[in-house]
Write a structure and sequence with these properties.
It catalyses: L-glutamate + ATP = L-glutamyl 5-phosphate + ADP. By secondary structure, the protein is of the alpha/beta class. The protein is built from 13 helices and 15 strands.
Length: 369
């Protein structure tokens, strides 16, 4: 049985449901989803909707839309976003609100907190938040890239109980069900490991969306580590949503961790993006998640990438073992300078005066135990 007493859920809807033929928005598949959202709210469950589809919805307005030019795609997103929001708005008799985000918004701690506060405030006033990546302004450095992972980040920010990811298949299969008649669906996944990832391929060639089953598993891994039950379901059938409302599992249920990560640790590990690396000797022994200040310039072998104070870095050994993902208290330039000093006493006094390279309160452990 699926929990029915969720306080808050996030549901992710992809481009193929919004605009199946890339000729504007269609309510054909959205009616069942909208009714599900209405019924959830009537049961006292708050809902956040993560909706792709702006590029697909706006494509028909551009005769040269088949071009791969990113400028055209951004223009499609700008034109399609208003149509998509208008379509959703027509399906509800309560107000909705648009939230357009980039990864830069999510990985900046102050802006991330602001996103959380906005979501909570909208829900408190019974307004449905509708979230999408801001494709009109995003770049390779700023984008999440797919709304599966975005939905997991939003679910974490919203402190959701469940994440429901709509797909074009019933759930996760042990092999591609479109190519293999003997494919078997997994109804429950307790642990996400390499074997689970091997069951998923990349994005479907020629598909409308940008994700695939792999990005859905990545999203599930992010969500369950925050204590969020995650479901991959078939968003094209009304039966799917009726089963969820009745407390039944219509797809694949990824079970939430009993001991979820602390909110700030989860944000550091799953939402921030490393801007560089600090390499230490393979003999380095201290567990940084317990004693972050044991990392000094004396142990540093190399500094890779360019980063500023406050940027996220990965600390790893020179044999490739990743230790922690952390906020750097030093820029790469300064760290290189003190690490290359032949006078160890100078570096020691400098760090004693300036402070540690990383702090325990701003790191997430990456070591496999």
């Amino acid at each position: 049985m699926v929990r029915k007493n969720w306080n808050r859920i996030v549901i992710k809807v992809g481009s193929a449901l919004i605009s199946p033929n890339r000729k504007g928005c269609s309510s054909h598949y959205l009616l069942s989803i909208a009714q599900f959202i209405v019924k959830c709210r009537a049961m006292g469950t708050q809902v956040v909707l993560v909706s792709s589809g702006s590029v697909a919805a706006g494509a028909h307005q551009f005769p040269d839309g088949e071009r791969s030019d990113i400028t055209i795609k951004k223009a499609m997103a700008a034109a399609g976003q208003t149509e998509m929001m208008a379509t959703w708005d027509r399906l509800f008799d309560f107000p909705s609100a648009q939230m357009l985000l980039t990864h830069a918004d999510l990985r900046d701690r102050e802006r991330y907190i602001s996103i959380r506060e906005t979501i909570f405030s909208l829900l408190e006033h019974n307004i449905l938040p509708i979230v999408n990546e801001n494709d009109t302004v995003t770049t390779d450095k700023l984008k999440v890239g797919d709304n599966d992972n975005l939905s997991a980040m939003v679910a974490a920010a919203a402190d959701a109980d469940a994440l429901i990811i709509c797909s074009d298949v019933d759930g996760l299969y042990d092999k591609n069900p479109h190519a293999h008649d003997d494919a078997k669906m997994l109804s429950t996944v307790k642990h996400i490991n390499e074997d689970i990832y091997k069951m998923a391929g990349g994005a479907v060639e020629g598909g409308v969306g940008t994700g695939g089953m792999r990005t859905k598993i990545e999203a599930a891994e992010k969500a369950v580590s925050h204590g969020i039950d995650t479901f991959i379901i078939n968003g094209f059938t009304e039966l799917t949503f009726n089963m969820l409302l009745q407390g039944e599992n219509p797809g694949t249920h990824f079970i939430a961790h009993e001991k979820p990560m602390a909110e700030n640790v989860h944000w550091m590990r799953h939402t921030t993006r490393a801007q560089g690396e600090v390499i230490v000797d393979s003999e380095f022994a201290p567990v940084l998640s317990e004693n972050a200040e044991s990392l000094t310039s004396k142990e540093i072998v190399d500094v890779k990438g360019e980063f500023s104070v406050g940027d996220t870095i990965i600390v790893r050994k020179d044999d490739g073992t990743k230790l922690v993902k952390a906020r750097s208290n030093y820029s790469s330039t300064l760290l290189n300078f003190i690490a290359n000093q032949e006078n160890d006493e100078f570096s020691l006094k400098f760090e004693q005066k300036t402070g540690p390279i990383i702090s325990k309160k701003n790191l997430a452990n990456l070591e496999k135990k």
